[in-house]
């Protein structure tokens, strides 16, 4: 009989609620957040150096720098994804992961046996192999930005496989996690300086619009605030 | 838990279970409510500011069912192999005290009376031949007049905000002119209207439709309900859907019923108790109690009871009936049996209108149940004769508070890129200056759409998963397309700079990867004929008379309205008849 794993139990039993401190998947998010504020460049805990280069480059192509602001790598999306790999989510503990694993019509949803962390590992290695094969570069991160974009487009639209992972499945995982990193509370490592929220005009954890139910189309005047009280 | 025998056991601590548990303890019964998930209290799960966290909340599904333990399998057609629903997406069942009632949005409807006797009405107006081949169109077997006092009671318990149209036959307000007559006003006045909703109201009226304020179980003012529990006024924080309301403003079993129930010594709530099956006597005519798995000790426990209430949410209700052997499983080939028959959902599609760069829609402001709707194309409110389909959709602006991750991952809409160059510009325009309009419609029942046990996949406890065989059908696709067509003039009247209409495509298959609604229905439907229904008009099993099955599982077809108002009214209705009739003389309340 399979019962909730100890990580899952920690995840829920550890929600202390009254402060922003909680045990998340066996490690302390708050301690991580403090470390992030200490100004040291973030050292990935899950991804290898080669994978980390891939991730930084890919995040920056998915959410690029432009007149509106920095790219997703500068906003901490790779750090966010790295940290997520050590949560119940990264381990696939929020998904039904019992076999048999069979492929089926795409509309029936994800059917791979890989949790996110294994999916990244397999697909990044295969993506770099694809780049070596097609572009004569050592790895994805060594390509020019336009070439990186072209490779990601091929993954998004193509029918090719990256190891056992359909390329578009990997691309969608990457796109979703990158945007999660840009737009989640900075507590998780991304959205540095609340730049993601500022871009959209989302006020974060303010969560009280009693006076702003209907201001006849005027823009909301206050900038964002995070769960820990950071403002921008 | 030392008592081995209780008067009643209630399975599931959501809306239906909490209502039944409250009513049965009021009747003097000893009641044990078993909930597979964790204890949940707003002071903890709803604590500000840690609850205002989209990643942990709606994205990683903090309060929802953990699929790693149990899920369903899904296929579109009878000849397909069903595959597991491995990641939450299309629908989001609840888990833990309060069930989905803790993280619902709060749109709180009654019912369109015509929908209760849809078969009779369609046949009377258009003839039998109007019903498409393979559609199992049926009546509920209960009338609006019978249910009215229980709709009224549920609204008072939920603290519902709304604007009436008629009370006791007299026009009293500017509410929904298609809404059925009421015996009393809403307990609270209608919620305020966000900018998008007020634009929709003006534009809809200008093209001849009849806009009204959505009835919302979000408190427009401070309120104390009949159980003596208090709600605070909603501040439009936008964290209803997927969250526990930190303001105590959204109705939930946790806020509106359980504080009163927990004080009753005859009531016991056991969490982390996953019910494996209802136990039956040898001839399967009487339930003797339930067997549950204590998830803390990992031990199976047998609990005897005179009365068993299955209120575990629509499809869990059907699953438990199939696992327990209550009634005869439905067979779509032979067209025999009833358990799993008439499994239905709802159609929903979203259209978007972009306004001028000077108009900010502030999409993050909102409340889950608030908005402005029209019913001109719902139920039987329009002539279906020339259209050749059954059903309809309310249409609304229900700005419930759009969060940045959901918005960003969903993309800017229209033809704009979903990443890379041009994405930010389009996303900023959409998030700041657009609004959405939904067609939230009915879904009819079909002979080859049903629920049964999966032959391959099992849950963490070794039991067969429930299998859904579900697809969209031509009737419902054409209904959706027709109603969405009626949105276009409203968008034009709003002065939108551009728009995109969302509608089901011809032949579209059900896609499990995209959130639609958690408004699943049927599978254990009510009715007046035991050959085509599982439970009688009092939601009592035709086969096992001391089992009552409460939830949207009772709906013979998916209606245009959100289901919970109807679920709550049916729960109070069933409870009333258990209290006044069944308990005096236990046995079938309707002779088969
Ligand atoms: C995001 C979201 C928004 C929604 N918004 C609306 C809305 O605006 N309007 C509306 O009308 N409806 C809405 N709904 C639907 C609404 O939540 C449900 O209709 C309602 O909660 C159903 O009540 P219930 O008691 O039948 O089930 P639930 O509230 O889901 O309760 C069932 C309980 O049973 C427990 N359970 C299941 N199986 C077992 C078992 N074997 N043993 C023990 N316990 C078990 C579950 O854990 C759960 O706690 C929404 C749903 C979601 C997810
Ligand atoms: S919008 Fe209102 S009802 Fe909803 S969570 Fe916020 S305060 Fe509560």
Topology:
The complex is a heterodimer of chains A (232) and B (592).
Chain A: H1 6-13, E1 23-24, E2 27-28, H2 29-37, H3 49-62, H4 77-84, H5 116-135, H6 145-157, E3 161-162, E4 165-166, H7 167-183, H8 195-200
Antiparallel strand pairs in A: 1-2, 3-4
Helix pairs in contact in A: 3-6, 4-7, 5-7, 6-7
Chain B: E1 5-11, H1 15-26, E2 31-34, H2 42-45, H3 55-59, E3 72-75, E4 83-84, H4 113-116, H5 118-126, H6 144-158, E5 166-167, E6 170-171, H7 195-206, E7 212-213, E8 223-224, E9 230-231, H8 253-256, H9 258-261, E10 267-270, E11 273-280, E12 287-294, E13 299-310, H10 314-324, E14 347-354, E15 372-374, E16 395-397, H11 404-410, H12 423-433, E17 434-441, E18 450-458, E19 464-469, H13 474-485, H14 488-493, E20 498-500, E21 547-549, H15 564-582
Parallel strand pairs in B: 1-2, 1-13, 2-10, 3-19, 13-21
Antiparallel strand pairs in B: 3-4, 5-6, 7-15, 8-9, 11-12, 12-13, 14-17, 14-20, 15-16, 16-17, 18-19
Helix pairs in contact in B: 1-15, 6-15
């Amino acid at each position: 009989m399979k019962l909730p794993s100890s990580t899952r139990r920690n995840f829920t039993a550890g929600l202390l609620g009254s402060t922003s401190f909680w045990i998340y998947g066996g490690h302390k998010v708050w301690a991580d957040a403090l470390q992030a504020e200490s100004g040291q460049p973030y050292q990935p805990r899950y991804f290898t150096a080669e994978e980390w280069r891939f991730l930084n480059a890919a995040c920056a192509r998915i959410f690029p720098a432009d007149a509106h602001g920095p790219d997703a790598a500068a906003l901490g999306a790779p750090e966010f994804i790295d940290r997520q790999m050590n949560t119940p989510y990264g381990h696939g503990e929020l998904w039904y992961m019992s076999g048999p694993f069979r492929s089926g019509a795409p509309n029936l949803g994800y059917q791979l046996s890989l949790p996110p962390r294994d999916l990244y590992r397999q697909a990044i290695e295969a993506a770099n192999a694809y780049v070596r094969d097609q572009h004569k570069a050592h790895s994805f991160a060594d390509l020019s930005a336009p070439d990186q974009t072209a490779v990601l487009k091929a993954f998004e639209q193509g029918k090719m496989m990256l190891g056992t992972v359909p390329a578009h499945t990997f691309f969608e995982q990457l796109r979703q996690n990158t945007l999660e990193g840009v737009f989640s509370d900075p507590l998780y490592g991304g959205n540095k300086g609340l730049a993601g929220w500022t871009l959209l005009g989302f006020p974060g954890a303010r969560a009280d619009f009693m006076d702003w139910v209907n201001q006849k189309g005027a823009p909301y005047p206050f900038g964002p605030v995070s769960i820990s009280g950071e403002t921008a | 838990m030392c008592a081995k025998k209780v008067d009643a056991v209630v399975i599931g601590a959501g809306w239906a279970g909490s209502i039944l548990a409250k009513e049965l303890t009021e009747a003097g019964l000893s009641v044990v409510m078993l909930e597979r998930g964790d204890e949940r209290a707003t002071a903890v799960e709803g604590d500000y500011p840690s609850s205002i966290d989209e990643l942990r909340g709606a994205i990683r599904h903090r309060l929802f069912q953990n699929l790693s333990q149990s899920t369903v399998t899904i296929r579109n057609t009878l000849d397909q192999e069903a595959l597991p629903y491995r990641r939450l997406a299309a629908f989001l069942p609840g888990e833990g005290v309060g069930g989905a009632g803790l993280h619902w949005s709060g749109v709180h409807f009654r019912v369109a009376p015509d929908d209760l006797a849809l078969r009779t009405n369609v046949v009377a107006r258009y003839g039998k031949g109007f019903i498409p081949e393979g559609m199992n169109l049926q009546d509920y077997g209960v009338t609006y007049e019978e249910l009215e006092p229980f709709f009224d009671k549920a609204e008072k318990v939920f603290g519902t905000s709304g604007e009436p149209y008629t009370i006791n036959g007299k026009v009293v307000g500017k509410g929904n002119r298609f809404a059925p007559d009421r015996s009393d006003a809403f307990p609270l006045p209608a919620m305020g209207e966000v900018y998008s909703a007020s634009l929709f109201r003006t534009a809809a009226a200008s093209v001849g439709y009849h806009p009204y304020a959505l009835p919302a179980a979000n408190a427009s003012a401070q309120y104390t309900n009949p159980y003596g529990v208090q709600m605070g006024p909603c501040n439009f924080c936008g964290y209803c859907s997927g969250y526990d309301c930190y303001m105590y403003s959204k109705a939930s079993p946790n806020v509106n019923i359980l504080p009163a129930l927990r004080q009753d010594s005859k009531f016991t709530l056991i969490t982390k108790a996953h019910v494996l099956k209802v136990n039956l006597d040898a001839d399967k005519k009487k339930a003797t109690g339930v067997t549950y798995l204590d998830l803390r000790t990992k031990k199976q426990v047998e609990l005897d009871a005179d009365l068993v209430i299955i209120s575990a949410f629509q499809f869990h209700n059907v699953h438990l009936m199939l696992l327990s052997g209550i009634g005869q499983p439905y067979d779509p080939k032979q067209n025999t049996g009833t358990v799993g028959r008439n499994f239905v959902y709802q159609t929903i599609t979203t259209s978007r209108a972009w306004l001028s760069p000077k108009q900010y829609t502030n999409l993050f402001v909102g409340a889950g149940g608030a908005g402005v709707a029209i019913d001109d194309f719902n139920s039987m409110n329009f002539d279906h004769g020339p259209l050749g389909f059954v059903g309809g959709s309310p249409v609304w602006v229900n700005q419930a508070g759009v969060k940045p991750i959901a918005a960003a991952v969903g993309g800017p809409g229209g033809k704009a890129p979903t990443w890379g160059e041009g994405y930010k510009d389009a996303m900023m325009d959409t998030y700041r200056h657009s609004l959405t309009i939904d067609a939230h419609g009915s879904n009819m029942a079909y002979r080859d759409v049903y629920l049964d046990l999966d032959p391959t996949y099992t849950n963490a406890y070794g039991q067969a998963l429930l299998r859904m065989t579900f697809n969209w059908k031509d009737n419902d696709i054409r209904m959706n397309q027709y109603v969405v067509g009626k949105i276009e003039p409203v968008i034009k009247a709003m002065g939108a700079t551009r728009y995109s209409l969302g509608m089901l495509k011809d032949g579209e298959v059900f896609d499990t990867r995209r959130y639609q609604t958690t408004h699943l229905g049927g599978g254990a439907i009510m009715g007046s004929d035991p050959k085509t229904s599982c439970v009688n008009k009092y939601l009592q099993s035709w086969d096992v008379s001391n089992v009552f099955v409460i939830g949207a599982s009772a709906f013979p077809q998916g209606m245009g309205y959100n289901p919970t108002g109807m679920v709550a009214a049916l729960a109070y209705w069933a409870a009333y008849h258990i209290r006044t009739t069944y308990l005096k003389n236990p046995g079938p309340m309707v002779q088969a």
